Each structure stands twice: as structure tokens, then as C-alpha cells.
Amino acid sequence: MEITGFFTAILIGLVIGALGRLVVPGRQRIPFLLTILIGIVAAILGTLVAALLGVDDTAGIDWIELFIQVAFAAIGVSIVAGTYGRRR
After folding, report:
1. Which residues, in sequence order, are CB contacts of 36 under 8 Å at separation 6+?
2. End-to-end Cα spacing for the chain
3. Using one digit for the tens of pLDDT, what is the confidence trace for 27-45?
4. What whole-number distance in Å separates Cα of residue 59 and Cα of residue 14?
5. Which of 5, 28, 36, 70 allows an S-S link to 81, with CB 3.0 to 4.6 Å?
6. pTM here?
7. 65/62 Cα distance (integer angstroms)
8. Is 81 exposed, middle or buried, given 0-12, 13-18 or 19+ CB atoms closer than 10 A?
């Protein structure tokens, strides 16, 4: 992954976190900034996995990469919401 891809993944991560939160059913009692952080991590991981699978650079919109990123965000939001909710 090039440095531009890394920064793009961070910017996309802001949106990915929100999408991941929308995908998870129910109410998540976690701060929005934590959701953004999860989205950034999910975007980076999704980009890395897409690169490993060879689907990171396609013509047009990279739908497969986006799906992978949102899936990582949804998993991350679910895990954090489960552990964060029990802490309080």
C-alpha cells in the first residue's frame, strides 16, 4: 500500500465507521469518535485484505473493497459495543 492509499483509507474510514454502525442492528452505546476510530482501522484493514485478494484496484468504484471495509467496521462496532456497554 502506498502512502496515498493509507491516507485515503483514513479519510474513507470516517465514512466506513458510520456505515458499519448503521449495519449493526440495535442501539450501540459507544461514542461517535470511537466509531470513527473503528472505521479508520476497518478501512485500513479492508484495504490490506483487498490488496491481498487482488481486488484493491479495479476500474470504477471498488465495491468489493468497500464491502470488506464495512464488514470489518460492523464487526468492530459489534465487539466494542458489547464490551463498552458492559463496562458502564
Report:
1. 13, 14, 17, 18
2. 38
3. 888 888 888 889 889 988 9
4. 23
5. 28
6. 0.80
7. 5
8. buried
